[in-house]
Design a protein that fits this description.
236 residues; alpha+beta; OB fold (Dihydrolipoamide Acetyltransferase, E2P); 5-stranded antiparallel β-sheet
Length: 236
């Protein structure tokens, strides 16, 4: 639950209410942030997990979805740990419901959201770990390409738009071309679903794209392209 608290404090919309009246306020905040980050690096400050008086009705099912399908898989590729998070969250919302703090409809909505995202979160965590070892052991580069220079690199968040019998194809935000195919073993291809988003670096050797480096993988259910995000309505 400590990790959930850190997600809610630092990444959700529940505590992002800082407003600046002028440049002096912003400069003061920025200076304080720099000092706080320096203290964190020195080990002098522990990340805050205090939610204060946050009421339960401020929580939305999407907070738990994004925690499990984005924050947790960003922090760990341990599929067993991600499943344990899901189990604890399900037990927690059941406890809240049994104490009468959630209505039946609220409990059902939270339960269904977790039940939907948990399998995807576990899958992409396992996929991230397999890809990490595959790339680190040189599995991403065929023998005929090893030692040759890359002619091009592409990196960022690449969405899977095609999963074929031997390869995958990426689409990167704000790019007008698809990148691929990228050859992968069948056992890895079976773990990938269209819409998954890789934090990845690809390199082009001759006419072959290979994975040079890879980070977390996110399921489509929690990843939103910049163009898809509408933001909040402006009230004048």
């Amino acid at each position: 639950m400590e990790m959930l608290s850190q997600y809610l404090i630092h990444y959700s919309d529940l505590f992002q209410d800082t407003e600046f009246s002028d440049e002096a306020d912003f400069a003061e905040w920025e200076e304080g942030l720099e000092q706080h980050m320096a203290d964190l690096l020195e080990g002098d400050v522990e990340p805050s997990s205090d939610l204060g008086m946050l009421p339960l009705d401020a929580l939305d099912p999407e907070h738990l979805r994004d925690f499990l399908g984005w924050f947790a898989v960003r922090e760990s590729s341990n599929a067993e740990l991600i499943q344990a998070f899901a189990n604890v969250l399900q037990a927690w919302i059941k406890f809240i419901y049994q104490r009468g703090w959630f209505s039946h409809d609220e409990y059902r909505t939270f339960h269904e959201e977790l039940a939907e995202v948990a399998p995807d979160a576990v899958r992409v965590a396992r996929l991230s770990r397999v890809l990490f070892h595959f790339v680190r052991t040189g599995g991403g580069v065929s023998p005929r390409l090893r030692g040759k220079r890359f002619s091009r690199f592409v990196e960022g968040h690449g969405r899977i738009v095609e999963v074929n019998s031997k390869s995958i194809v990426f689409d990167f935000d704000n790019m007008n071309e698809k990148i691929g195919p990228v050859l992968l073993p069948q056992v890895i291809l079976e773990m990938i679903e269209e819409g998954d988003v890789f934090d990845v670096e690809l390199g082009l050797r001759d006419d072959s794209w290979v994975i040079v480096d890879v980070g977390p993988v996110y399921p489509a259910s929690v990843y939103v392209e910049v163009e898809e995000y509408q933001g909040l309505e402006k009230i004048s």
